[in-house]
Amino acid sequence: MYFVVIDNVGFFWGILVEGLHGNARVRAVNLGGWLVVEGWIKPSLFDDIPNGDMLDGTQVQLKSVTLQKYISAQNGGGMNVSVDRDNPLEWETFKLWRISESVFQFRTSEGQFLTCSGDGDSVTATTESPSDSETFYLERNFNNRVHIKLKSGTYIQASNDNVLTADFPGTPGWDDNPATFEMTFVAKLQGDYQLANGYGHNKAKDVLKKHRNSFITVDDFDFLYRHGINTVRIPVGWWIASDSNPPAPFIGGSLEALDNAFSWAQ
């Protein structure tokens, strides 16, 4: 029998299942990676996501293979975009907003999005809220070279004037040409949002149901009890408050698993 501690975004609630008596000491474990997905604990949860290293929130840098310069949002966003930096820092780092496995939006360090109004126009970083003009289609080959194109099918290229323009003629190959960029990963996120966004609702629901039913079971609680553990800490996501219908893309079901934990602890 346990003292169960629930952790929700830094706040703690304790439910006393059996009190501690006399000189009894709290001996606790943390059940992380169960009701809040943490990729470093169970990376295999993400194995079947297409383009699984380009999940929502991933930070990337893009380098023109012809100019050998990095794409940069001047002042971190809100201004023009250039292709003129030798060493990538904050202005040259973009956060991916994943729409699908091949459709993305690029957010600058100051919060604006890369945008292009249409064929022949330049790319800037001046939009606060993304829509079609801020949505790009990415093609990728095996060694992290990418092409970026508009919905119209026109490819973005790095011009000799060190700007990005939507006017590459035809379809680029993977050789050194102005429409090909090298993509470097700076940081990645692997949580519930990334899993659900990457798989889509139906597949994510199946993956999470299997995970929640198998990662921690009644046998684990029995094992802990037999080894003197009398307290467990269970991190949960804030969306558990709307578990029957959580905001997209989160997947409900963690409340049922938490209820099971209370039953096992008795």
TrEMBL record:
InterPro entries: Actin-crosslinking, DUF7910, Fascin, GH. Residues 51-186 form the DUF7910 domain. It holds the Pfam family DUF7910. One of its GO terms (molecular function) is actin filament binding. GO terms for cellular component: actin cytoskeleton; cytoplasm. GO terms for biological process: actin filament bundle assembly; cell migration; establishment or maintenance of cell polarity. This is Putative ovule protein.
